[in-house]
UniProtKB/TrEMBL annotation, chain A:
PROSITE patterns: ABC_TRANSPORTER_1, ABC_TRANSPORTER_2. One of its GO terms (molecular function) is ATP hydrolysis activity. It is a peripheral membrane protein. This is ABC transporter ATP-binding protein. GO terms for biological process: amino acid transport; transmembrane transport.
TrEMBL record, chain B:
This is ABC transporter permease. The lineage of its organism: Bacteria, Pseudomonadati, Pseudomonadota, Alphaproteobacteria, Hyphomicrobiales. It is a multi-pass membrane protein. Belongs to the binding-protein-dependent transport system permease family. SUPFAM superfamilies: MetI-like (SSF161098). It comes from Ensifer oleiphilus. One of its GO terms (biological process) is transmembrane transport. Pfam families: BPD_transp_1. It comes from the Bacteria. It is found in: Cell membrane. Residues 98-299 form the ABC transmembrane type-1 domain.
TrEMBL record, chain D:
Residues 97-286 form the ABC transmembrane type-1 domain. This is ABC transporter permease. The chain crosses the membrane at residues 33-57, 104-125, 146-171, 191-211, 218-243, 263-282. InterPro entries: BP-dependent_transpt_permease, MetI-like, MetI-like_sf. Its main location: membrane. Belongs to the binding-protein-dependent transport system permease family. The lineage of its organism: Bacteria, Pseudomonadati, Pseudomonadota, Alphaproteobacteria, Hyphomicrobiales. It comes from the Bacteria. One of its GO terms (cellular component) is plasma membrane. Keywords: Cell membrane, Membrane, Peptide transport, Protein transport, Transmembrane, Transmembrane helix, Transport. It comes from Ensifer oleiphilus. One of its GO terms (biological process) is peptide transport.
Length: 549, 314, 516, 294
């Protein structure tokens, strides 16, 4: 902070900003007296748990608060001018030209029915920066600049023809088109794979230095913030808990909340402390393999009707010993979900053998398959989607018991209560419905449902990816504890290597449906057997800090 | 693609045949028939023997399945038979009635689309909450008014009280003013409702925020980003609207004495003029099938996501 | 003032015509057109009901009314140029009197006992009858006897819906037609053979007539009053006041036939007992119906036929509204009031059913009032508004429709036969008549009287029989006459010279449009 | 755990404002109820009361007129005037409620039960059968609805309930399509798979998850269809296929009253306005369902 002080006035100065939403009857203030500043060329990260007001703050700066949001007080000064009370018309001249935005979700941030070229060109046209042939040329050079191959082709394509990472590059091209003074990047990579994430963040960094633009980076990932930001602003409940130079905050967090954030971030813990020894400490009877996957192949026929099949999983084999955790990692589309859906019996494999606790899955169908489900349970990636919105927590957790009809009503009730308190859900949550629960609570319900049948194996598909670090840490602790107490076997799917390293014993790294690396976690991490694994490991954010400490 | 088209064509033929058969059975099951209705009329003063002779001459007493086969055979050769009630060939009647309905329906639909668009776009552009509220309750109101009642009221007010447009012996375009409004009102309501909802949905999607962040004004965003995206899903209710258009046409044509298929349907049902009804059903099923086919083929043209089907998963 | 030549009359008709085969002209929309485009052998003076010359210059009838000889006016042509001579007339009557099976053309209801024709010379034609047919002369004057060209008669029946194919010799010819919507007539310049005793001769004053089908009552009346039409048919009684208030003219020519009545089907056991029918007759307050629903143009009935009809006999004394008598009759017949207020006998309730008749003015309301009046006696009348198919099928079955509204217009005592005779309209549904659903009911006495009525050549005797039938029908309480039904039209004040034939179809031959 | 609770309360109140409303107490609910919605419920409540206890609202006989009182203008003794037979129009409207509402109810119930069953079956069975069923639904859609209802009335005979059935049949296709797409949507959801995963049988999953979750929007449409059924039944009355006299069914009142429009405008206007109000109210209420469901 002291370093970049005197000569230049700050690009942005936010002072005592307060923002409230009103929903019909009540005003609810979600941002309280937030102040911070961004100097030219500087990256400031806004960190905090979900709902802490990060997006709200960012939106207010670019004047795009929701219709029901209102700035209650404070000022937002852009180059010394307070724009917090400007009309839309005034702001239109600033948006895109002086402040631009890189949104969170590249999938839905581009208009699906317009070409990429038109959407990049639009910002130039709105501000009268180019037209005609010149426009096309500028669009193509911008696309090229953000690292898109065949920019002329891309300009003619539609968003759905591009991958998530490519789309985010297009959005970045739009954001930098007019060389704005400030770019607001709201979780620019949280919807992307780790490897892609790293490349995108690198690109933003590169352009920032090239154009001298300042960046307000909104993120809940402390690792990302640590790697990229000059200064941190830590928000909780709409209040600034701590602000200061990244190094300072990370080295010696002053507020309790910042300390906790730091402790929960897996990217740090993975490096800072060895994964807590779980089942690994227990002596294991060798040969007690609960899951045996042998030569698994899964083909899908593509829907475009040309009959060509697509191989999502290709000759995958691994074994999981009882009471341990096996992780499957890989980037999006690598076949992780496909694999586990075959393992839990939702999908008949094209070839290969799957054996769970001695039962060959291919022999099961109908009632035997139903009975088999007692042994293995799946926890979904998206807890909200996997819980019936019309059922109460109690009904959800009691349903598996009901399905197998093994318990009388009082016993069932008792069991449900027991398991719910086991996963740490408060008693009053029992008759709430999923929408009235937080993300972490929902995931606990999903876990409780999986556990209520006393299964041997629990399969977790990205079970913590959607949660913010604090909640994620709680859930991981819970899983660890349950495994220890109940002797569960976990099959854990994730794209987050930091998490994997923290909790699993063995791992399979998938790429395009093939296993490129596998074995004990330590071995894979210390001595990666493939470039791909190495790339994955390098992409783990937070390494800058690790280097610092 | 050609396989897909063939498949669709097969389905279309099936729908046509099934509509024909169902209507044939329905008509056969009705008490009485056109011949009875026409000739048992005491005004004609025919005795039972004469009526029996007439029945025989129409071959109306042969076995049902024979009639079914014969009718299908006739239809396949493009012969729709004679209207018992009116005494002219059905094809002549259709030719005489179709233009009026086509005009009424297409103009009615156009006006409905304009109503709907005005309601939807003005209400999302206006900065005034009360205008927005008022406009958005218009579809509900439109949907609540009985069509025939509206028609009669419009005639009373605009033709008889204010004497703005004649309903009797009007010019070719004057003739359409009130009926088109009458028809457009009930049709515009569901259109407007769907549009308003779609616009609301699209307005909250992130790409709109991105466009705004580029510095685009509300109007710019509405026209260049929202409009097309909001119109697309509206196409899906085309099939349902078709039915409403026909139902609306029957009533409108009856009220205004227009000489269209709608009014003809009403009269033909009344006199159980089987040949006419059979032809109308086949035509309407044909129109339905064609409209749906067009909509299906139009979707990929308007929505690039549907052009390459496999790409949709990416 | 003198009649003005020129102009087109805009005429709003309630229903589209169905078929223009002349004997089908009984249906008003058909008749309204046929009356302009066809001429008849004779003309019945609507005031005197005398038969006057038209296409026939003169005629003779033999004593027992089995042979009629007509002398045809010369120089008459159909609009296609073919001559209207004795041969043409003979051809017409052969079809009307005998029908044509091949072409599906039915026999005319107004021609009884027809045997054959004979062309005596080009201007003379003679008709022979198997039995006396005294009503035939009048029958030659009605719409159903309009003369058409040979080309029209050669068409199969189902093609006669197309007005442009109907070639007549009348003052107007069909110019163009939009099926179901509009019909344009234009004047025939060379027309010079109007009824001889009419003041107006030569071509019609109007250049043309535009018939526009306008089904909605409110639109017809509104359009007339708004100046969009000149003349309309079917004006309901409740609209008369406002028409007259604006100095427009109501025309309500009597149909001179069987009155608007409610008839019974005695084959149904519920109304087989004459006492029950009589009770219901006396329970019906025709006066209340007329004052509530109608106007002075709808006189209360005093017999089963109109007071202006030939052979009318005033029997109002037998039609008196007398609820006490009605109750006594029902009690006597064994129908006692049950717990639910309905009359019962042997476990059966006196619940009757009738279909409303769409063409009759305010028939639904009329029947509802009748139901209300009978209800006071503990008799329930269910009024149904069925579709045409069910209505016709059910109407043939006395068990389903023991009661029915009925009326028919024609200015000859034969009309009574038309209405009641089993081979004609058979409103009472007798065995051997229109319906094969009838179990046993037949009234030979009535049928004998009706046959005599249609074949008694002596005019005085014929009228006496007509009177007898009226008495008999009411004595048997087969019908409850309610009012004399007019055809109600309304015209703009500048529409002059509207004439009606004897049973209320308009004739626009002498019509002209004054300055306005 | 308290931290969790605050988080969830924040999140819930904003993202699920309407849903959360359900959990509030009744007085709170009333305060939150928008005026329009409250009025709509009021209109429906009155119409319902008319249907169940019409005698509480009028002392006139709806079926029998008083001679000499016909076609009276609205005044203190006859709130909405009288008709051609001297019957009090207000009384006829009040007593007609039961016919119109039963008619609409039967129509909607028929479309809902039959249509939804077809849709649910189509949505849950194999692709082939599903395709076949949906083509049949297309056939139903391709026949002009009015012709279909008129034919059905002719087949069944005239009467309020028969008219309702005729109207209901035309909505079967719409319900079937909607419920099928909802079922297909719900069937794809994770929670359905999760239910199978926790050992649910096909029937149990269908009953516990698929049905309840797909019916919400179907029910919202049902409320909408209710209004439209009232209208369609009245249209049948206009075309001459309504209930037999003297049934004071609303559609029939409008339809019959129209003939008197130039002499007694209230005969068609008053029931017309009542129908508009009821249908509007039904619409409004259906929208509020839709929001809760969304
Ligand atoms: N349009 C809105 N109306 C009402 N409340 C809102 C609205 N948008 C956000 N909120 C609430 O404001 C608070 C802050 O939300 P915001 O989106 O700024 O959080 P965030 O820090 O970006 O969280 P996340 O990491 O989940 O994106 C939350 O409680 C949220 O529920
Ligand atoms: N039912 C299916 N039909 C056709 N292709 C499928 C199907 N399910 C998955 N695929 C394809 O198989 C590949 C692997 O998908 P899978 O869902 O297993 O990936 P993943 O590793 O779980 O990715 P993510 O991290 O995005 O969840 C993808 O290319 C996907 O498009
Ligand atoms: Mg956010
Ligand atoms: Mg996955």
């Amino acid at each position: 902070m002291s370093a970049s002080s005197v000569p230049h006035p700050p690009v942005l100065e936010v002072e005592n900003l307060s923002i409230a939403y009103h929903d019909g009857i009540a005003h609810r203030r979600v941002v309280h007296d937030v102040s911070f500043r961004i100097d030219p060329g500087e990256v400031v990260a806004l960190v905090g748990e979900s709902g802490s007001g990060k997006t709200t703050t960012a939106q207010s700066i670019i004047g795009l608060l929701h219709a029901n949001g209102r700035i209650d007080g404070g000022s937002i000064r852009l180059n010394g001018t307070d724009i917090s009370r400007w009309s839309d018309r005034q702001l239109d001249t600033v948006r895109g030209a002086k402040i631009s935005l890189i949104p969170q979700d590249p999938a839905s941030s581009l208009n699906p029915v317009k070409t990429i070229g038109a959407q990049v060109g639009e910002i130039l046209r709105i501000h009268g920066a180019a037209s005609g042939r010149d426009l096309d040329a500028r669009v193509i050079s911008l696309l090229e600049r953000v690292g898109l191959s065949e920019p002329a082709l891309r300009a003619r394509q539609y968003p759905h023809e591009l991958s998530g990472g490519m789309r985010q590059r297009v959005l970045i091209a739009i954001a930098v088109a007019l060389k704005p003074q400030l770019i607001i990047a709201d979780e620019p990579t949280s919807a992307l794979d780790v490897t892609v994430q790293k490349r995108i963040l690198d690109l933003i960094d590169e352009l920032r230095t090239e154009y001298g633009t300042s960046v307000l980076l909104v993120t809940h990932d402390l690792g990302v913030a640590a790697d990229r930001a000059d200064r941190l602003v830590v928000l909780q409940g709409g209040r600034v808990q701590e602000a200061g130079a990244t190094k300072v905050v990370l080295a010696a967090p002053r507020s309790a909340y910042a300390r906790q954030l730091l402790a929960d971030a897996p990217s740090f813990s993975a490096v800072a402390r060895k994964a807590p020894a779980t089942a690994r400490e227990k002596p294991l009877a060798s040969g007690d393999d609960v899951i045996i996957v042998d030569g698994l192949v899964q083909d899908f026929t593509r829907t475009d009707g040309n009959g060509k099949s697509f191989r999502a999983v290709n000759d995958l084999s691994f074994r999981v010993r009882r009471g341990t955790t096996h992780a499957i990692v890989g980037e999006s589309g690598s076949g992780k979900t496909t694999t586990i859906r075959a393992i839990v019996g939702f999908q008949k494999p094209t070839a290969g053998r799957i054996e769970i606790d001695g039962t060959d899955l291919s022999t099961l169908r109908g009632e035997t398959l139903r009975q088999f489900r007692r042994k293995i349970q799946l926890v979904y990636q998206n807890p909200y989607g996997s819980l019936d919105p019309r059922q109460t927590v109690f009904e959800i957790v009691a349903e598996p018991l009901l399905n197998f009809g093994s318990l009388a009503r009082p016993a069932r009730e008792e069991k449900v209560r027991a398991i719910l308190s086991r996963v740490g859900l408060p008693e009053p949550a029992l008759d709430r419905r999923p929408h009235a629960l937080s993300g972490g609570q929902r995931q606990r319900v999903a876990i409780a449902r999986a556990l209520v049948l006393d299964p041997d194996v629990v399969v977790l598909d990205e079970a913590v990816s959607a949660l913010d670090v604090t909640v994620q840490a709680r859930i991981l602790d819970l899983l660890d504890e349950l495994q220890r107490d109940l002797g569960l076997t976990y099959l854990f799917v994730s794209h987050d290597l930091a998490v994997v390293r923290q909790i699993s014993d063995t791992v399979s790294v998938l790429k395009d449906g093939r296993e490129v690396d596998g074995g004990a976690v330590e071995d894979v991490f210390e001595r990666p057997g493939s470039d791909y694994t190495r790339e994955l490991i390098n992409a783990i954010p937070g390494q800058k800090r690790a280097a610092l400490v | 693609m050609s396989g897909y088209l063939l498949n669709r064509l097969g389905q279309a033929l099936f729908v046509l045949w099934a509509a024909f058969t169902i209507s044939f059975v329905l008509l056969q099951a009705m008490p009485g028939d056109a011949i009875l209705i026409k000739f048992q009329n005491p005004e004609l003063g025919l005795n039972p023997q004469q009526i029996a002779d007439i029945r025989a001459s129409y071959a109306a007493d042969s076995a049902i399945w024979v009639q079914y086969i014969q009718t299908i055979g006739r239809f396949l050769t493009g012969n729709f038979g004679y209207s018992v009630q009116v005494g002219v060939p059905v094809s002549t009647m259709l030719a005489a009635h179709l233009p009026a309905t086509l005009k009424l329906a297409s103009l009615g639909f156009l006006l409905a689309a304009i109503f709907a668009a005005v309601i939807a776009f003005v209400s999302s552009l206006t900065p005034f909450v009360w205008i927005r509220g008022a406009l958005q309750s218009v579809p509900s109101l439109f949907i609540s008014i009985p069509t025939f009642w509206l028609g009669i009221m419009l005639i009373q007010i605009f033709s008889f009280r204010l004497k703005l447009v004649p309903v009797i012996n009007p010019g070719p375009w004057q003739e359409l003013i009130l009926p088109v409004i009458t028809l457009a009102v009930p049709i515009s309501a569901p259109l407007a409702q769907v549009l308003v909802r779609n616009i609301d949905d699209v307005l909250t999607s992130p790409f709109v925020a991105v466009a705004r962040a580029k510095g685009a004004t509300r109007q710019w965003v509405l026209w260049r980003h929202v409009a097309k995206n909001a119109l697309l899903p509206t196409l899906t209710i085309a099939g349902v609207l078709f039915g409403e258009l026909i139902a609306g046409a029957v009533v409108t044509e009856t009220v205004f004495g227009l000489n269209g298929i709608g009014g003809l349907t009403g009269r033909a049902v009344g006199s159980q003029d089987a040949a006419v009804l059979q032809a109308i059903v086949v035509f309407s099923a044909l129109a339905f099938v064609i409209i749906n086919l067009i909509v299906d083929l139009l979707f990929p043209v308007l929505d690039p996501r549907l052009r390459t089907k496999a790409g949709a998963t990416a | 003032s003198d009649p003005v030549k020129g102009g087109t009359l805009i005429y709003l008709e309630q229903q589209a015509h169905t078929n223009l085969y002349p004997p089908a002209g009984g249906f008003y929309p058909n008749g309204g057109i046929l009356n302009q485009i066809t001429d008849k052998l004779t003309y019945q003076n609507p005031k005197t009901l005398e038969i006057e010359p038209w296409i026939a210059e003169s005629w003779t009838v033999n004593a027992d009314a089995t042979e009629y000889t007509f002398k045809i006016r010369s120089g008459v042509t159909f609009s296609d140029g073919t001559p209207l001579d004795a041969a043409a007339v003979a051809k017409n009557y052969d079809v009307f009197g005998l029908g044509n099976k091949e072409l599906k053309q039915p026999v005319s209801e107004v021609i009884n006992n027809y045997e054959r024709s004979e062309v005596v010379d080009p201007q003379t034609v003679k008709f022979y009858f198997k039995k006396p047919s005294p009503g035939f002369l009048q029958g030659t004057s009605v719409i159903g006897s309009g003369l058409v060209a040979a080309s029209t008669l050669a068409l199969p029946f189902e093609q006669l819906g197309d007005a442009t194919k109907i070639i007549g010799s009348g003052p107007f010819v069909v110019d163009s037609e939009t099926i179901g919507k509009e019909l344009n007539l234009k004047a025939r310049e060379e027309y010079a053979w109007g009824p001889a005793k009419l003041e107006h001769q030569g071509r019609p004053y109007l250049d043309g007539i535009k018939y526009i089908i306008t089904g909605e009552d409110s639109v017809r009346i509104g359009a007339l009053l708004a100046g969009q039409a000149d003349f309309i048919r079917q004006v309901q009684a409740y609209d008369e006041k406002q028409v007259e208030a604006q100095d427009y003219q109501i025309y309500a020519p009597s149909t001179r036939g069987v009155n608007n009545s409610v008839v019974f089907r005695p084959d149904n056991p519920l109304v087989a007992d004459v006492r029950v029918r009589k009770a219901l007759l006396h329970a019906t307050d025709a006066k209340e119906i007329v004052t509530t629903l109608f106007s002075a143009n709808y006189p209360q009935a005093t017999s089963i036929i109109a007071s202006t009809a030939l052979g009318y006999r005033d029997i109002s004394a037998k039609l008196a509204f007398d609820p006490e008598k009605a109750k006594a009759l029902l009690d006597e017949a064994g129908w006692t009031v049950g717990a639910n207020g309905l009359r019962q006998k042997d476990g059966k309730e006196l619940v009757l059913t009738a279909y409303e008749s769409l063409p009759q003015p305010q028939n639904k309301e009329t029947l509802q009032l009748v139901a209300q009046q009978w209800g006071k006696l503990g008799v329930k009348l269910t009024v149904l508004a069925g579709d045409s198919g069910s209505r016709i099928v059910d109407d043939l079955d006395p068990l389903k429709t023991p009661v029915s509204p009925a009326m028919v217009g024609r200015a000859d005592p034969d009309v009574i036969k038309s209405q009641y005779y089993p081979k004609n309209r058979d409103v009472l549904r007798q065995k051997g008549g229109q319906s094969d659903k009838v179990q046993s009911f037949a009234d030979d006495k009535l049928n004998g009287l009706l046959e005599a009525l249609s074949s008694e050549p002596d005019r005085e005797k014929r009228l006496a029989i007509a009177g007898e039938v009226q008495d008999y029908v009411v004595d048997q309480a087969y019908a409850i006459p309610i009012f004399e039904e007019p055809q109600a039209f309304a015209g703009a004040p500048y529409v002059q010279g509207i004439a009606f034939e004897a049973v209320g179809r308009p004739s626009f031959y002498s019509t002209w449009l004054a300055e306005h | 755990m308290t931290t969790f609770d605050t988080i969830h309360h924040d999140a819930i109140a904003s993202r699920h404002g309407q849903r959360a409303g359900r959990r509030f107490s009744v007085p709170h609910l009333i305060r939150r109820l928008p005026v329009g919605l409250a009025l709509s419920w009021l209109v429906l409540a009155i119409a319902f009361l008319w249907a169940v206890a019409p005698w509480l609202f009028t002392s006139y006989n709806p079926l029998e007129g008083v001679g000499g009182e016909q076609l009276r203008r609205p005044d203190a003794s006859h709130l909405l005037g009288t008709d051609a037979l001297g019957r009090d129009l207000y009384a006829r409207i009040v007593y007609g409620a039961v016919h119109s509402l039963t008619g609409a109810f039967v129509a909607v119930a028929l479309g809902l039960v039959v249509g939804t069953s077809i849709g649910v079956i189509a949505g849950s069975v194999r692709r082939r059968i599903d395709d076949a069923i949906m083509r049949l639904i297309d056939v139903l859609l391709s026949i002009p609805p009015l012709m279909l209802s008129l034919s059905i009335i002719i087949l069944l005979g005239f009467g309020t309930v028969n008219a309702a059935i005729a109207v209901g049949v035309t909505s079967v296709a719409r319900f079937a399509r909607l419920s099928r797409s909802e079922v297909v949507r719900v069937r794809r959801s994770d929670y359905v798979e999760a239910a199978f995963g926790s050992g649910g049988t096909f029937a149990a999953v269908l009953w516990r998850h698929v049905l309840p979750n797909s019916l919400t929007s179907v029910l919202a449409i049902a409320a909408l269809q209710f209004g439209s059924a009232v209208l369609q039944i009245s249209t049948l009355g206009f075309l001459g296929y309504g209930a037999p006299p003297p049934t004071p069914e609303w559609g029939l009142l409008i339809a019959e009253g129209r003939n008197y429009i130039s002499t007694a405008w209230w005969l068609t206007t008053a029931p017309g306005v009542i129908v508009v109000l009821v249908v509007l109210a039904a619409n409004r209420v259906s929208q509020s369902f839709g929001k809760v469901a969304a």
